[in-house]
Write a structure and sequence with these properties.
Layout lengths: L39 E8 L3 E2 L3 E2 L8 E9 L4 E5 L10 H10 L4 E4 L3 E3 L8 E7 L14 H15 L2 E4 L11 H5 L22 E4 L6 H13 L7 H5 L1 E5 L9 E5 L9 E4 L8 H4 L5 H9 L4 E5 L18 E2 L11 H16 L6 H4 L28 E3 L10 E2 L4 E3 L21 H5 L3 H5 L4 H8 L3 H7 L21 H15 L15 H17 L5 H39 L1
Parallel strand pairs: 5-6, 5-14, 6-9, 10-13, 13-14, 15-17
Antiparallel strand pairs: 1-4, 2-3, 7-8, 11-12, 16-18
Helix pairs in contact: 7-8, 12-16, 14-16, 15-16
């Protein structure tokens, strides 16, 4: 057995050479600590508890107060706020923005490039990569390019306000008036353009944005894929796990009984933003009120989360990074601060839960705070609000863009206070028939399917379109599910399983348009399916129905495939015996 030690410089490619001295089967594995030291952010200021008795939020004067102690924060505990550097004003005004970000529960500020801007005044068109922009210092930049002052204010941000700092820079986005271009005119040609080796990248996380979800299904997929984890009603383990006989790794000896569970690939680590600084506002994409739904949904993800200055304040439109000259308005947690007071609670809860070690199941263990009663819409002027009548939690008095020559302002708005709602923990899925639904949907399958012969098994499992239409005088054929690009291949369960149900189970695709309307045409088998689908419709919560449907289909399919194999082997043995008798 060989146990090589891996290098800890993860951004670089890793190559491992394993000596193999003889032919045969080999097993290799990778062990990694649950939270290596390199993923912990050291020296982050701790905060006091946010809630009273774990339920009722404390006011800003007594809850989530910055402490002198520091903690080592996992990467997923970050709450990042992006600010466009030129809109926060000169450095003497920065402390107002630092205080506001701290009060709203953020733990890191992401600054767009602070370097000296070029003729266009875009932060991503840099005139001098080695100096900070003079406007940051009211035009009084020192000979060091402003480095000393920037270092000092970033220390203040961390020590006095508990805010870590992050900046991004695109070095090859050079301004057309950069002196560097005069010294290196060849860099303006694609034949001699500046290129960096991959070792400079050091990317360990991807940025994901919730507002890229164009409907409820896609939005849910983004949330579950990049932080929430497995959805309630997850079906992958329950439906895909099977008992099989597998050969020995050496190829010798008898088959061994094993429980087989397919493994899904893991996703790269991601930061989930509600909105990034170069995309349209909630008012443009969905509705202004939708910010109050999107904020909580992003917060309760087990991942680093982020927002952009202006989202909490309900800025009505996408701001122009090049042409916009106005400065941010600082409103703190005032009444006219948009959803900022809600964001304070959400960001602080996110930090508490990550530090509390709730992990990826934090979404199921947390205290339920129901902010989702505000309308969440994926198209303007739609009346579709799902199954819950909305409760108005934010009052926006006008959707007109505020006009101010010097300051960026959000829509006129006011949060609506409501009484606390205490939701009981846990869900008990016992039906009125006694047995749990999960037990019932897989019960009695052996008794129902055991006596089916090869002909019946072919009907229940397969049957091509032509066979089915011949048997039903053209009345029935293969399944044609709405919203799918093609029909299923078979009329039996294989038509459900491949490629539909197998894809749904493997990927937990709970928004798939598949529905259970048609049943295999055999009396006892059909009744078995009907009893279980009727029970599911009568007792299962809507969002749990896909799981139970998949349980029914997968239980029947696995049993029927096993019976088919046994029947086929029996028929083969009988044919071999008959042939032997005839030869004799």
């Amino acid at each position: 057995m060989t146990v090589p030690k891996l290098p800890s410089d993860f951004p670089k490619p890793i190559q491992i050479n394993l000596p193999i001295s003889h032919a045969g089967a080999f097993v290799f594995g990778l062990n990694m600590a649950s939270c290596p030291a390199s993923v912990l952010l050291k020296g982050v200021k701790a905060i006091s508890t946010l809630t009273l008795s774990g339920l009722f939020p404390l006011p800003p004067s007594s809850g989530a107060i910055l402490q002198k102690d520091t903690v080592n924060l996992p990467l997923d505990g970050l709450s990042i706020l992006t600010v466009v550097s030129k809109w926060i004003g000169p450095m003497p005004e920065w402390k107002n923005h630092l205080a506001e970000a701290k009060d709203r529960g953020y733990t890191m500020l992401h600054y767009t490039p602070l370097q000296e801007r070029g003729e266009s005044d875009s932060a991503y068109s840099i005139r001098d990569q080695l100096k900070y922009d003079p406007s940051t210092f009211d035009g009084k930049r020192r000979a060091d390019g402003g480095k000393e002052k920037v270092d000092a204010i970033l220390r203040v941000a961390q020590e006095d306000y508990g805010l870590l700092s992050l900046t991004d820079i695109v070095l090859n986005h050079t301004a057309n008036d950069s002196p560097w271009l005069v010294d290196h005119p060849e860099s303006g040609s694609t034949l001699f353009s500046l290129r960096f080796p991959p070792a400079l990248l050091g990317i360990n996380s991807l940025i994901r944005e919730s507002y890229t979800g164009w409907d409820a299904k896609e939005y849910s997929r983004l949330l579950y894929r990049h932080g929430v984890g497995k959805p309630v009603g997850s079906m992958d383990e329950a439906c895909l796990t099977s008992t099989e006989k597998i050969p020995s790794p050496t190829g010798k000896g008898p088959l061994r009984k094993a429980v087989v569970t397919p493994l899904n690939a893991s996703m790269p680590h991601g930061f989930l933003y509600d909105l990034t600084h170069d995309n349209y506002s909630p008012l443009h994409k969905r509705s202004a009120e939708d910010a109050l739904s999107t904020g909580p949904l992003v917060t309760f993800n087990y991942s680093a989360i982020g927002s952009v200055k202006g989202f909490d304040d309900l800025y009505p439109k996408l701001l122009n990074l090049v042409g916009e000259k106005r400065k941010y308005e600082v409103t703190g947690l005032q009444e006219e601060s948009g959803i900022a007071r809600v964001k304070r609670l959400l960001n602080s809860l996110h930090l508490e839960m990550v530090l509390g070690g709730m992990g990826k199941d934090m979404s199921t263990k947390r205290t339920i705070i129901n902010f989702d009663l505000s309308p969440s819409r994926f198209a303007k002027n739609t009346k579709d609000r799902g199954y819950v009548s909305p409760i108005k939690l934010i009052d926006i008095t006008s959707y007109d863009v505020p006009v101010d020559a010097k300051t960026l302002k959000g829509l006129p708005r006011k949060l609506v206070e409501m009484s606390p709602v205490v939701v009981p923990h846990g869900l008990t899925m016992k039906s009125h028939h006694g047995a749990s639904l999960e037990e019932f949907v897989v019960s009695n399958s052996q008794e129902v399917f055991a006596n089916l012969g090869l002909v019946e098994l072919n009907v229940v499992l397969y049957r091509a379109n032509g066979e089915e239409r011949d048997a039903t005088n053209g009345q029935f054929g293969v399944y044609d599910v709405p919203s799918l690009s093609r029909r299923s291949l078979y009329c039996g369960l294989e038509g459900w399983i491949h490629p539909l149900v197998r894809h749904i189970m493997r990927n937990n695709d709970l928004g798939h348009p598949l529905q259970a309307d048609d049943l295999p045409n055999r009396k006892n088998v059909a009744q078995w399916f009907k009893d279980r689908f009727d029970r599911i419709k009568a007792t299962a919560l809507l969002f749990l129905r896909p799981q139970y449907f998949a349980l029914v289909i997968s239980e029947a399919y696995k049993l029927l495939v096993a019976l088919s194999s046994n029947n086929a082997l029996h028929q083969t043995d009988c044919f071999a015996c008959f042939r032997s008798v005839c030869v004799k």
